[in-house]
Amino acid sequence: MTTLLLPPSExxxxxxxxxSSLDLAALSFPDLGDARRTVLDALASLAxxxxxxxxALKLSARAAERELARNRVVHSSPTLAAIDRYTGVLYDxxxxxxxxxxxxxxxEAHVLVHSALLGLIGAGDAIPAYRLSHDSRLPGIALKRHWxxxxxxxxxxxxxxxLDLRSEGxxxxxxxxxxxxxxxxxxxSLGEDGATRALNHFNKKGKGAFxxxxxxxxxxxxxxxxxxxxxxxxxxxxxxxxxxxxELIVPATLEGFAAAG
Length: 261
Known about the structure:
By secondary structure, this protein is an alpha/beta fold. It has 11 helices and 10 strands. The longest helix is centred in the last third of the chain and has 16 residues, at about 200-215.
């Protein structure tokens, strides 16, 4: 089964199902339970000191009140599916709320999100709003050291191709297994001279739009070659890049990319 691995977003939607709260036992990959509790405990400890928390989480004065309040109630606040909780450029382009039911079902089966708070989670896993980034500083915990081994074990246990659309910061919190069907996806544009150029901010929009197109197309192929072919059918050329990578070429017709190229 093909897995699409996404980064989280700094921004998150408020709210959730009435009466719901974080249930660690219900999340995907229960072997991460102890690691999740450790980070949650450290976040709770940090929340006792607003000034220290704002510094550790790199929050502006304007954002601090809202984000710190979220962290103080992370165990008791209502939950949403991860694919609905995250907002921002990538998730706006994915627009999970408007996916037809078959595409939504495929998202829940094939999409994982890499949370700095909870590690690898499924797109359908119910999570609260929170603030924690891959480079945040928690008391007594270095997130890269804490998460990389545990998440790497989870990824190594997944059968079938893994397409890694995470940012490099989140990729460091859970390295891909060293195998031919686990590949980092680099989003590029194709210039008039035929040369590819890496995209920065606009790569997030490309990732979201690509994942949506692939989910809407139909069942995901079970091989890297099949995914490359399916991507092309959706208007998203994909080809081998540097060792361990695929290049995803953003269509010139995608709004916003012409100026970015």
